[in-house]
């Protein structure tokens, strides 16, 4: 039997069982019908964030940002480009720290943009400051060599 991953939908938080491979990018959420990997990192709320961290078998990268933060806006296209490289082997999401203040406080965010890498429900690494797409991809792969090209 092919290895199955638990892929959490970034739109609704639904948990999907999915063999990863070339078809994963086409797969749709069994709960809401949206694509599981849209190529565009979703802004998630507290509920979906917690579900991604707790249930996803994929590594999860979260970009904590705010609308008033210039470097955050500058990094947004780079982060989307990194998602296109890393998905479906990792999940990239965004968290608006203005909308989700309680989560930002729980994560101990001191400056933005901050990226945090989670795997198996645990924080693996974090970094602050804007990065290019190549730097983001390298930052993830250096820490999780299983995130294949
Ligand atoms: Zn869904």
Report on this structure:
With 149 residues, the chain is of the alpha/beta class. It has a single domain (39-143), classed as Glutaredoxin, CATH 3.40.30.10. The chain is 30% helix and 23% strand. It contains 4 helices and 7 strands. The chain has helices at 46-55, 70-86, 101-106, 133-143, and strands at residues 5-8, 15-18, 42-43, 60-65, 91-96, 114-119, 122-128. The strands form 2 sheets. A 5-stranded mixed beta sheet has the order 3-5-4-6-7, with helices on both faces. Helix 2 links the parallel strand 4 (60-65) and strand 5 (91-96). Helix 2 (70-86) packs across helix 4 (133-143). The protein is globular. The mean pLDDT is 94. Residues 9, 11-12, 14, 29, 31-32, 34 line the site of zinc ion.
Keywords:
Glutaredoxin; two-stranded antiparallel sheet; five-stranded mixed β-sheet; single chain; alpha/beta; binds zinc ion; 149 residues
Summed up, what is this model?
The protein has 149 residues and is α/β, with parallel strands linked by helices.
Question: How is the topology of this model organized?
Answer:
Elements: E1 5-8, E2 15-18, E3 42-43, H1 46-55, E4 60-65, H2 70-86, E5 91-96, H3 101-106, E6 114-119, E7 122-128, H4 133-143
Parallel strand pairs: 3-5, 4-5
Antiparallel strand pairs: 1-2, 4-6, 6-7
Zinc ion is lined by residues 9, 11-12, 14, 29, 31-32, 34.
């Amino acid at each position: 039997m092919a290895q199955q991953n638990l892929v959490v939908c970034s739109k609704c938080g639904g948990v999907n069982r999915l063999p990863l491979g070339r078809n994963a990018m086409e797969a749709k959420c069994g709960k809401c019908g949206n694509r599981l990997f849209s190529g565009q990192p979703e802004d998630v709320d507290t509920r979906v964030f917690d579900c991604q961290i707790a249930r996803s078998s994929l590594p999860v990268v979260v970009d904590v940002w705010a609308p008033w933060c210039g470097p955050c806006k500058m990094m947004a296209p780079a982060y989307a480009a990194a998602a296109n490289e890393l998905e479906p082997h990792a999940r990239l999401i965004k968290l608006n720290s203005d909308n989700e203040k309680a989560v930002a406080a729980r994560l101990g965010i001191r400056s933005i943009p901050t990226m945090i890498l989670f795997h198996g429900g645990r924080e693996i690494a974090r970094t602050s400051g804007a990065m290019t797409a190549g730097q983001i991809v390298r930052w993830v792969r250096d820490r999780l060599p299983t995130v294949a090209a």
